[in-house]
Amino acid sequence: MSVSTPLPADATSDSGRVRLYLWPHRLLYIGPGPCTRSHRHHAAQVCWGVGGTLRSRAEPRGQWDEWNGFLVLPDRPHAFDAMGATVAMLFMESEGSEYASIRALAGTDDGITPFEPSQHAAMGLATLASEGGAIDEADAICRAWLGLDGIAPRVRDRDARLARALHLLQASIDQPVRLQSLADTLHVSSSWLSHRFVEETGVPLRRYVVWMRLRRAVEAVLQGASWTEAAHAVGFSDSAHLSRSFRDNFGIAPSSLVGRRDQISVCFDKG
Predict the structure, then answer these.
(1) What percent of the chain clears pLDDT 70, i.e. is strictly above it?
(2) What does the pLDDT look like over 160-210, one tens digit per residue?
(3) Whole-number Å distance between alpha carbons of 137 and 133
(4) 59-96 pLDDT, tens per residue?
(5) Which pTM does this prediction carry?
(6) Is the pLDDT of residue 1 over 60?
(7) Where along the chain do its domains lie?
(8) Interatomic CA distance for residues 78 and 31, integer angstroms
(9) CA distances from 161 to 165, 170, 184, 234 (A)
(10) How many helices (H) and strands (E) would you count in the chain?
(11) Is the fold of 2-152+253-269 the same as that of 160-244?
């Protein structure tokens, strides 16, 4: 189900529109490309210059390379310069099944490797950039971009116990989550729950919780909450803890995504 979040027009920008799509295991940003210092993040990242060439460098090598698209491996220091181009950036949970499916395509441990979308995926990303689209459309385009068209997506017709586990997590996201306690509540073993959770969601339980908390925090801020209020509402100790977690996953401060609210359209996957 697609849910578009209405955003208050209380900020101005002449930098262009941002389109943001969030799932339990990935985030797609389409909009003005950043120029960053050397940084690292736990999520894997694929980038494509919708409107031009991109530059990046793997640290500490310090040599800039230009390409239309590339893949950044998890936890690798790198710098990035979109050179004014509109960019599509897809952040994937590094412990998830989607990244595992494409990891062999990297062919290097250097940190950055060329990775361009197919013509079909490139056209889809360009359409999202210019016109937007529903969350299901964006999901199909992301899967085409990653070359996963022939691979079955995560299970939607879930085991009833997994469905209950997800419901419990969503209802108590502000509380500590322990695998054994959740397994006891479901009357299953922790090993069964750990295995089936990855099988049916694509990510381990603990990483799913982190991504869900980050998504919920962004959603809360977009609906008017302060960063401190959002942090407490989703289980972070304070706004600094939230900001660190966001940077660890995406390499940028959360305020950089929601600082221009009149220029952002956001869709959340609720499946």
Answers:
(1) 86
(2) 999 999 999 989 989 999 999 999 999 999 999 999 998 888 889 999 999
(3) 6
(4) 876 789 998 999 999 988 898 899 888 999 999 998 88
(5) 0.82
(6) no
(7) 2-152+253-269, 160-244
(8) 20
(9) 6, 14, 12, 23
(10) 10, 12
(11) no
Query: Is 160-244 assigned to CATH 3.40.50.2300?
Result: no
Helix, strand, coil percent values for the chain (each to nearest 5): 40, 20, 40
The order of strands in the sheet holding 78-81 is 35-39, 78-81, 54-58, 65-67
- The torsion angles phi and psi of 162, rounded to 5 degrees, stand at -70, -40
The fold for domain 2-152+253-269 equals Jelly Rolls (2.60.120)
3-state secondary structure of 232: helix
Alpha-carbon gap, residue 205 to 193, rounded angstroms: 9
Residue with tokens 């419901």: 167
Kindly report each contact of residues 177-183 with a partner whose C-beta sits within 8 Å and lies 24 or more positions away, as own/partner: 177/205, 177/206, 177/209, 179/205, 179/206
Hey, what are 39's tokens?
């940084």
Distance, in Å, from the CA atom of 1 to the CA atom of 135, rounded to the nearest integer, reads 8
Q: Which residue has the tokens 């999520």?
A: 43
Residue with structure tokens 């002449």?
14
Please classify residue 200 by burial: count the beta carbons closer than 10 Å to its beta carbon, then call 0-12 exposed, 13-18 middle and 19+ buried: middle
- The packing angle between helices 179-186 and 190-201, to 10°, is 100
pLDDT tens-digit profile of 245-266?
Answer: 998 888 878 877 766 666 778 8
CA dist., res. 254 & res. 7, Å (int): 16
